[in-house]
Write a structure and sequence with these properties.
Layout lengths: L10 H22 L7 E2 L13 E2 L1 H17 L8 H28 L2 H35 L1
Antiparallel strand pairs: 1-2
Helix pairs in contact: 1-2, 2-4, 3-4
Amino acid sequence: MKTNLLFPHRYRLIGWLIFIPSALLGLATMYLDYAVKWLSVGPMTTISLFQSSPNNLTNELAGVGVIIGLMLIAFSREEIEDEMTNQLRLEALQWSVYLNYLILLLAILLVYDGDFFSVMVYNMFTMLLVFIARFRWLIYRTNKLLAA
């Protein structure tokens, strides 16, 4: 994996600062029907076949924030970026793809209607979340082995 495609190390903190409030906003939007009033957009022009209704962009803002935050966390350089780190990053990415598609496959076979939509919303973020968790675990385990 080419390391020149990674963000600078300091972007990880920026990612956390974007991800945490965005995730909380997204959860509040989904479970508490929270909406930021100034993010409401009124009905657009009505075309004869289509009618548009007012929409609030709070959930879109939360989703974009979560994705940007997770991308910055996941793809920021480590303080020491070497071949071993690249190998761990690649392994974590492979795990996350496998698990993401396993969840998708199970959802297609076992979940229906509105619940399927909810699973798909969470599945959008699964790959990055699993990648970050697996990569951090591998880094932790490797550092512990090297320290011993």
